[in-house]
Design a protein that fits this description.
The structure is a single chain. The chain is mostly helical. It has 9 helices and no strands. The longest helix is centred in the first third of the chain and has 17 residues. The termini are far apart.
Length: 152
């Protein structure tokens, strides 16, 4: 996995210069794939905040499933970087759950993540829900329940 640093360096360089939204979304997806493949080969303390700062995606919404798969990989591994960023991740999940930005696969991944976080950290979910606009809060609460999503 020695190529990870080279790939990340190229992606970081591209991210610093790129202005096209679809290309930025694809860079986020590429980094999310690297993290999902081998989190230990990615300097998450440097990389994860940059990826999170590029979200929500702007045009290539298909990459949302890749991003949420990455979040789930880190959550299942109990990586501290994900735990430190639960609030912005939950806000992101609420913003895109059951919207045109999330296909069925993305909605399922969001549900799995939000249900897990709600089970393990219910107080953090409650805090985030209280900070959201009512419509967005309702989507986050729906993701935490067993109610199947309806796309809006």
């Amino acid at each position: 996995m020695g190529h990870f640093n080279n790939i990340l360096a190229v992606l970081s360089e591209a991210l610093s210069k790129e202005t096209f939204p679809r290309a930025l979304d694809n860079i986020c997806g590429a980094v999310a794939r690297l993290i999902s493949t081998s989190p230990t080969n990615v300097p998450l303390e440097q990389v994860f905040p940059v990826v999170l700062g590029c979200l929500p995606l702007r045009e290539d919404f298909e990459e949302n499933s890749t991003v949420f798969e990455c979040f789930l990989v880190l959550y299942r591994a109990q990586h501290p970087m994900l735990a430190q960023n639960l609030a912005p991740i939950l806000r992101l999940a609420a913003l895109i759950y059951t919207t045109k930005q999330a296909d069925d696969k993305t909605n399922q991944l969001i549900q799995e993540l939000v249900k897990s976080v709600n089970r393990d950290f219910p107080e953090q979910v409650t805090t985030v829900v209280q900070s959201l606009e009512p419509e967005v809060a309702a989507r986050l609460q729906a993701a935490a329940s067993t109610v199947p999503p309806t796309t809006t």
